[in-house]
Amino acid sequence: MSAGFTNVSASLFLTGLFGVIKLLSATFFMFVFVHLRGNRFWLLLGSALCGAAMLVLAFCVHSTTAPTSSLPAGGLNFIGVVSILMVYVFAFAFGISLGPLSWNICSEIFPANITTVCCAITTSVQWLFQIVIAAVTPPLLARVGWATYIFYAACCTISFIWVYYCVPETKGVNLGRDMDRLFTDDVEEFSAEDVTVADEETHLLGTGEEQNKRRMSFGFPV
To answer: How far apart are the C-alpha atoms of 179 and 173, rounded to whole Å?
Structure first.
């Protein structure tokens, strides 16, 4: 409304355009952007762009007065237009970084024996906080107004710092020991003596000490 889009059809159009931008950004990321740079680069860029968009949006909302009867119908306010563009910049930046990559990285980084449980937990947490954000944003806007976007800019800043110091590059890293080495140096290595070549005469199930070694190698009883 502060940008001059005061009728219902314009508001619905802008809302629909927001969804289209998110869809297109995620689609382009899957087929184009993901092949250009590593995951860590996109997470850092996305966090920075989202945070900058929120800061500019906070400034615009703080600087823009509420529309009054003196504003001509269909009149456009420059700062209001910029604020709408910042919403779209946020949608685009999120769609090429934090949106899709959070799902990919969570499915890659955990050891195989706990991947299912960990992915269930991370998926639940992501959906939970999407619900939390949707629930707390209207009360925040009603109480603190433009400062709501300062709060979200701070969240993006925390995301940038977290990725910079705590998230390694996972693109091109094989699952298993190679992925484990990104997070710890204590990765069990197997020597040639530990490998048994199977042929037609090899028993599928050994006895005694061989079975115990097999159980220990998997980490749980067979």
So the answer is: 6
Predicted model pTM: 0.73
In a domain, 222, yes or no: no
pLDDT tens per residue, range 134-180: 999 999 988 988 899 999 999 999 999 999 998 888 887 777 777 77
Q: Are 93 and 50 in contact (CB under 8 A)?
A: yes
Could you give the CA distance from residue 21 to residue 53 in angstroms, rounded to a whole number? 15
Number of domains in the chain: 1
DSSP assignment string, 54-89: HHHHHHHHHHPPPP-TTSPTT---HHHHHHHHHHHH
The answer to whether the beta carbons of residues 42 and 97 sit under 8 Å apart is yes
Measured distance CA(149)–CA(89) in Å, rounded:
14
12: CATH: 1.20.1250.20
Full domain range(s) for residue 151: 8-178
